[in-house]
Amino acid sequence: MARSNRPRRSSTPKPRSGRVNKWTRPGDPGDEPWLEKARYGVQRLQDLPDGQWHVRRISAVGAAKTYKCPGCGHFINPGTEHLVAWRADHWSGDDASATARRHWHPKCWDSRSFRY
């Protein structure tokens, strides 16, 4: 009879060890900064003639909803790469500026005029 190097299983189940690996740990998306950057894009600060703006590029995979571009008035369909912009120097604070963010086509954002 051939011998096996594998240990035999016992008939009684063993209690699980307290080990946690990357597949079984409870997921908290806030504790992984690289995961947040991959999911939401990298935010950068732009100084423009009309003030400072936070700009984040949204990938085609991350775009899941339909938005209306304020630059051209056309819709940004799901699966289309685009930008999200909000003021960094908003008069009522960061929370108010984040709720007033707008989704732009990259070309519309780059070619917008600063004359009002």
Automatic annotation (TrEMBL):
<protein>
    <recommendedName>
        <fullName>ATP/GTP-binding protein</fullName>
    </recommendedName>
</protein>
<feature type="compositionally biased region" description="Basic residues">
    <location>
        <begin position="1"/>
        <end position="19"/>
    </location>
</feature>
<feature type="region of interest" description="Disordered">
    <location>
        <begin position="1"/>
        <end position="34"/>
    </location>
</feature>
